[in-house]
């Protein structure tokens, strides 16, 4: 999948072009395209329609088989799970790091620093 994190000439913060994702022989997203403008979005579809898969792709937690995700520098994609996804046997830092797609040691260190700052910002210093 081609994911681009640069500004592009459009009023949209996020644009998804021709996203396809399959799990085995099951096609979950088939050539999906959409232009997201500023705002809050709610996805409401039957179970198995591809909502979570799409959100995971938009947040960088899943890779599409094909297609493009264009993000402006101002785009922030987050998702809220329906149920707790914390692993009780892991620290706060370790739980957050599970969602970070850091490939190099330097990226991981930068992420840890930002996480510590964020935890301090919400009064959770020392819990990492």
From TrEMBL:
Residues 30-124 form the ABC transporter domain. Keywords: ATP-binding, Nucleotide-binding, Transport. InterPro entries: ABC_transporter-like_ATP-bd (IPR003439), ABC_transporter_ATP-bind (IPR050166), P-loop_NTPase (IPR027417). Pfam families: ABC_tran. It comes from the Bacteria. GO terms for molecular function: ATP binding; ATP hydrolysis activity. PANTHER family: ALIPHATIC SULFONATES IMPORT ATP-BINDING PROTEIN SSUB 2 (PTHR42788:SF19), TAURINE IMPORT ATP-BINDING PROTEIN-RELATED (PTHR42788). This is ATP-binding cassette domain-containing protein.
């Amino acid at each position: 999948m081609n994911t681009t994190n640069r500004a592009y000439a459009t009023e949209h913060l996020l644009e998804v072009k021709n996203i396809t994702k399959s799990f085995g022989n099951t096609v979950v997203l088939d050539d999906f395209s959409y232009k997201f403008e500023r705002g809050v979005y709610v996805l409401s579809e039957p179970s198995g329609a591809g909502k979570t898969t799409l959100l995971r792709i938009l947040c960088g937690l899943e890779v599409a088989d094909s297609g493009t995700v264009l993000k402006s520098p101002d785009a922030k994609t987050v998702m809220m799970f329906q149920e707790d996804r914390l692993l009780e046997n892991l620290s706060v830092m370790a739980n957050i790091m599970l969602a970070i797609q850091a490939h190099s040691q330097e990226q991981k260190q930068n992420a840890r620093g930002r996480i510590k700052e964020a935890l301090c910002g919400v009064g959770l210093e020392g819990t990492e």
